[in-house]
Amino acid sequence: MATLPSDNTVAEAGTTPPKRKKDRTHWLYIMVIIAVFAGAAIGLIAPEAGKALEPLGKAFIALIKMIIAPIIFCTIVLGVGSVARAATVGKVGGIALVYFLIMATFALIIGLVVGNLIHPGEGLKLEPYEAAAGGESGGTVDFLMSLIPGSIPVLPTLVLALLVGFALQSMGKAGEPVLKGIGHIQAVVFKLMMMIMWAAPVGAFGAIAAVVGKTGWAAIGAMATLMGAFYLTCALFIVIVLGSILKIVTGLNIFLLLKYLAREFLLIFSTSSSESALPRLIAKMEHAGVSKPVVGITVPTGYSFNLDGTAIYLTMASLFVSTAMGMPMSLGEQISLLVFMIIASKGAAGVSGAGLATLAAGLQSHRPELLDGMGVIVGIDKFMSECRALTNFTGNAVATLLIGKWTNEIDMDQARAALNGSTPFDEQSLEPDAHAHEPAPTDSASTEPAAADPAPGTDQKQPALSQP
């Protein structure tokens, strides 16, 4: 029953809680939107000036390439360790990991199918930067570009990361300090990634101006087609795929679940990250009748391994770039890219720019020449990040309910009551324990309802739960 001594405990003691740092990423989002429209305007009004801005997009892509290998290495090493830890939890962890793998693969396949049907980027005929770059300012541009470190090969990095991950697994307790150290390194790498993302408005401005300057309205139409297709695909995936599975397994309605999570969706939409709603998802899943052990295992693991929206984005964006550059990928290349994305996308959720870095890693490992076409994606990536985050978040909510049902660790009456609104969630509270005492059976390993137990009996059971 003991809870973490968080800010609430401090507040109850009469002390003012420490101020949290303001999240300023919404300014980045606004600046990218302004840069995209400004770049498109310059490309349409003064095409030659737009083409001259191409090195700005090239420099930003070079910065992304610089950080790919460290992100892949840290993510894979920690991801392998997470699989081992989650699997040791038993049935819940095993079922969760198998389900996440199946759904991620299914989402990637859907992205490939839709991408091959609509052919996003067709007709743009983008050229590699080297072929399109002007020669007059080459001296200054080449000097500035030489300041950015080169990229490290991705596939050898991936293999090394897998070997290191398995080696640390075999070390057991002795490997835990190393994993913790790599976790700290990953935090530094993601911080660097966030710093690079603050240059995204400049990169997007140059890339969009150059593309629109070369192709005119065709570029705007192609980008709108990709965004529309991506949003539609994610919506259909949530309603048809996730909704059908949820209805068949639990009998719950996906639309009621979406309504139940409406405030979290608004929070995610404003921050472009599903991480911001993680505490509320934990609290709401417990309030919906899922037991604490299932929520405690499924939700955090799902945030790293259950990335349905990111999977759809990665495949559709890859096909967009290859088609726009007139270098379509064969079916074999698409399948190998799919396998790479399944592995490389794990563990990077919730970090701004991580999806873009994973996309760059996949392209570099399979078709390095396609990296020069990523400038267009930089411009519209922020428009698609909300949809990615919303799809990932919904997928994790559905997964928690499904795994609760499969392991008999959910009170279905409470779940229906929570989704119907007859037992409303206290929207003012972020504490999971504030809702754990409602009808949901959160205090026992069995599936018997706790409502019939008297209070003294419940108190007697609680100490046993906290013992390993």
Automatic annotation (TrEMBL):
Coiled-coil stretches, from where to where?
Answer: none
Keywords, comma-separated and alphabetical: Membrane, Transmembrane, Transmembrane helix, Transport
Q: Predominant location of this chain?
A: membrane
Q: Which residues lie within the region annotated Disordered?
A: 1-20, 422-468
Q: Where do Polar residues bias regions lie?
A: 459-468
Where is this protein found? Membrane
Q: Where are the transmembrane segments?
A: 27-47, 59-84, 96-118, 147-168, 188-210, 230-258, 311-331, 337-361
Membrane topology according to the record: Multi-pass membrane protein
Q: Name one Pfam family in it.
A: SDF
Q: Which domain of life is it from?
A: Bacteria
Q: What is this protein called?
A: C4-dicarboxylate transporter DctA
Instruction: Say which species the protein is native to.
Output: Brevibacterium picturae
